[in-house]
Design goal:
The chain is an all-alpha fold and 51 residues long. The chain is built from one helix and no strands. Helix content is 96%, strand content 0%. It comes from Streptococcus dysgalactiae subsp. equisimilis.
Length: 51
């Protein structure tokens, strides 16, 4: 009974950690996408002004 309980707790811990890692990865990619977006929009007008 105690072993099963420990297994469930460890399973929950792994699930929580993996979901945290997924959320962290999603946030990082979102930030990267926003940074790319900003950089593109900042660069494009400068290139257009050269024409």
């Amino acid at each position: 009974m105690i072993k099963t309980h420990k297994r469930v707790i460890s399973l929950m811990t792994v699930t929580a950690l993996s979901s945290l890692a997924l959320a962290n990865a999603a946030m990082t990619s979102t930030v990267q996408a926003e940074t790319l977006f900003i950089l593109l929009h900042w660069k494009l007008p400068q290139e257009h002004s050269n024409f």
